[in-house]
Amino acid sequence: MKKITPWLRLTRPANIVTSVADVLAGMAIASFFTGWVFNAAHLIPLFFICLSTIGLYGGGIVFNDVFDAALDKKERPERPIPSGQVTIQGAVILGSSLFILGIVMAFLVNMVAGSIAVFIALFALLYNKFSKHHPFIGPLNMGLCRGLNLLLGIGIIPLALQDWSLLALVPIVYIFSITMISQGEVHGGSRYKLFLAAILYLLVTAAILSVSYRNNNLIWAFVFILPFCWMIFTPLIAAMQDPVGKNIGKAVKAGVISLILMDAAWAASFSALPAGIFIACLLPLSLWLGKRFAVT
Hints:
By secondary structure, the protein is mostly helical. It contains 15 helices and no strands. It has helices at about 5-10, 15-30, 40-65, 70-75, 90-110, 110-130, 135-155, 160-165, 170-180, 190-215, 220-240, 245-255, 260-270, 275-280, 280-290. It is globular.
């Protein structure tokens, strides 16, 4: 187990759980779970899409540490690569294998999902190699990865993308906010960025509630939106009061993990309450993993 642990740390297991929640929410938006029956026709594409997002997100996170190896040697020497527990060559092989897994699994579902998977991998590499440290393009780039991940789930029924592809703007804005404030995680951040994140969080919440109201599912959406708001705003307010690296790190971690509740709200907004409940049940798993492996 000691040999496996550094490799698991590279993939940020708690974060991967949130990516699975994204695609499940996308499937609910596409009405995949309407009239759900437990047979191969449903289970196989569900299994493939979940494997796809695990591979894509895991690959992106691994390459994040590959490209940051020199910086982490100074700022985070305890990480697997700078500490010598994992070689860069080994990490590249792992990250590439995960990307291949993610793309192949998506193409096994359909060509649209496969094409989205390719773009996710490309944008993840673009972020890790070039845009990460840019104050605006970096957060936008990361947001695009999450927006595409939601579309990956919707793409399980390609025609649904015609009606619901614009919903990807919501996770784009949300992840833009988290990535923006995460830039102050090591050395501390600015209250301006934290206040801007709070405004964007409110816009995201309003967008989800607006969709749920239009779909006559506002009450069920509230079941997940209320704890979602509590999770994201509690540490964010603490960071506003004292914007040191430790507090910002807690706000970022909460923002990432609470994506599960956002995704549960999406599912409930589209009359897929059982899917919303199932997605919400991923939260304890992500929190448990978050205590054992780094989220940021």
